[in-house]
Amino acid sequence: MFKRAPLRIDKKTKNLVTRLNPGEVAVIHHKDLDEIAALSLVEKKVLAVINCDNFISGKYPNSGPSILLKNQIPMYEAENSILFEHLVDGDIIEINNNSLYLDGKLISQLKEITTEFIATALIEAEANLEIELEKFIDNTLHYASKEKNLLLRDLSIPIPKLNIKGRHVLVVVRGKNYREDLETILPYIKQEKPVIIGVDGGGDALLEFGIIPDILIGDMDSVSDICLKRSKQVYVHAYLDGYSPGMERIKKLGIDVTTFPAPGTSEDIAMLLAYENGADLIVAVGTHSNMVDFLEKGRSGMASTLLVRMKIGTKLVDAKGVNQLYQSTIETRHIIWLGLASIIPIVIIAGVSKPIHHLFRIIHMRLRLFLGI
């Protein structure tokens, strides 16, 4: 197989997709490619993906490679990581016989990821899942014991400008099936008008549907400048000592923000913010709630999420996967009956209206004259 195309290269897939154009080759360094990253590559219509790490390491059954395969996007693993030393955005590369060339010079051997390889690797990963589950649970309980007081009692929760007390709050994370779930609950959003909280890229997910976040929370590593500027209030998730890697970016944009030092994930503190400020109901879309979700995020446990969900559980409605429960469909017979129903009032009006009677007589006379009857 011969391919020649420009490339884009970045060790962080979420940063790379912001620069990718259709028909380019994506060069990444992404161990266990996850679903969200794979879908973002599919949306960009890349020509191929070269990974300087393992698409499937066998740690757990990640779904990213299967998504690329389903969309007929060729995948290759580089034998080493020197691609980041030799390649830059815009280089025109050639892929020929599982070899990568730049200006006619061999840069690296490649291993093509086939259907058979993915099937075998996923079977092995499934077999390893029980071992990973045991490690995951142990790690979760260990950190839950250490963080419980800090996260649930000693954490200082800021008060938003917008009053949350007694209202519904929608927390949106750009997680699995977030588009489908968000689309399904649009009638709820229109009717209830909840306070909208976007978590990092969840803010951009809301903008896709024309919804401006009332509050944006996160470390700001996967949200667009546009969303940062348009969100009504921004909280930057920081370490407990107050330092936040995302603050430098915020300062460059000149946006007024509030620092929110806290352990755990940004989606955890978004829910705590809503709960502690008196939300009547918290609806979550796209959040991470199981082991595979967290492994895909590079986390070895979910202590903070376990603690937060146990605390706010009485007010939390997790809308993850709600699109699979409710799918509106319109059958042909419904359309026919609707058409017939719409004709009935027209027939009734025509039967009792004198002006319409005269109109019909005129039309009848003109037809007779036209036809010479």
TrEMBL record:
Annotated GO biological process: thiamine diphosphate biosynthetic process
Domain of life of the organism encoding this protein: Bacteria
Protein keywords: ATP-binding, Kinase, Membrane, Nucleotide-binding, Transferase, Transmembrane, Transmembrane helix
Entry-linked Pfam families: SteA-like_C
InterPro entries reported in the protein's UniProt record: Put_SteA-like, SteA-like_C, TPK_catalytic_sf
Single annotated GO MF: thiamine diphosphokinase activity
Membrane-spanning parts: 335-356
UniProt entry tagged with the keyword Oxidoreductase: no
SteA-like C-terminal domain residues: 320-371
NCBIfam families the UniProt entry points to: division_SteA
Record protein name field: Uncharacterized membrane-anchored protein
